[in-house]
Amino acid sequence: MVLQKIFRAVIMGPPGSGKGTVSARITKSFGLKHISSGDILRANINAKTELGLLMKSCIDQGQLVPDDVMSRLILSDLRAMNQSSWLLDGFPRTVSQAEALDDAYTVDSVINLNVPFQTIKQRLTSRWIHLPSGRVYNIDFNPPKVPGFDDVTGEPLVQRDDDTPETVTRRLKAYETQTEPVLEYYRSKGVLETFSGTETNKIWPHVEAFLHKKLASVNQRIA
């Protein structure tokens, strides 16, 4: 589908919700530019920009990057692509970030992936890694031939700290606490669209159909 009008969307969903896969499919099917706050953060830290250095010192001290710094960083990137349609991923994470975004741009749609925490927990805690090679196994759908050992070298597999059940539970609770007010903010503005399910391949057709309909109406309004 070719866009005639600029269309701007935000995608939200907890870690392990399939957000990366859905984002990639949206950008491929609808030609939106995928803007990941994590990528922008890393690029600025690596390039040692003024904001990058500021954020690195926050992260090194175990502090959250302040809202205004995060907003300045993302908005300066968005300004560089002023006439583009985009899909923003990983921002906003707080209501004040959402307000800063609203002051600069009109967000047409917020796509929220609602995957049960139990499903995500199972997905993430099933991941095991062979550290030297980076090979990733999943106990449910890509298990090693010998449980706990790499297929190629026979060396033991490990679980990332991020993927232990305790850490996953903590991350999901933190996500819920932080983003619930943001979802409420967008719900009150009438732009929130929630897609629920346990499998990305079953959620995707609904997201795709919604965007086809949404973009057709956007293009009609300017026709």
Q: Could you give a short description of this structure?
A:
The protein is 51% helix and 14% strand.
List keywords for this structure.
223 residues; alpha/beta; 5-stranded parallel sheet
> Which structural class matches the secondary elements?
alpha/beta
Please state how the strands of the largest beta sheet are arranged side by side: 2-3-1-4-7
Question: Beta-strand percentage?
Answer: 5-15%
**Helix count, per DSSP?**
8
Distance between the termini: 15 Å
Mean pLDDT: 91
Largest sheet: 5 strands, parallel
Q: What overall geometry do the principal axes of the alpha carbons give?
A: globular
The low-confidence runs, each spanning 5 or more residues with pLDDT under 50, are none
Approximate helicity band: 40-55%
Instruction: Please give the number of β-strands.
Output: 7
The radius of gyration over CA amounts to: 19 Å
Q: Helix-strand pattern, N to C?
A: EHEHHHEHEHEEHEH
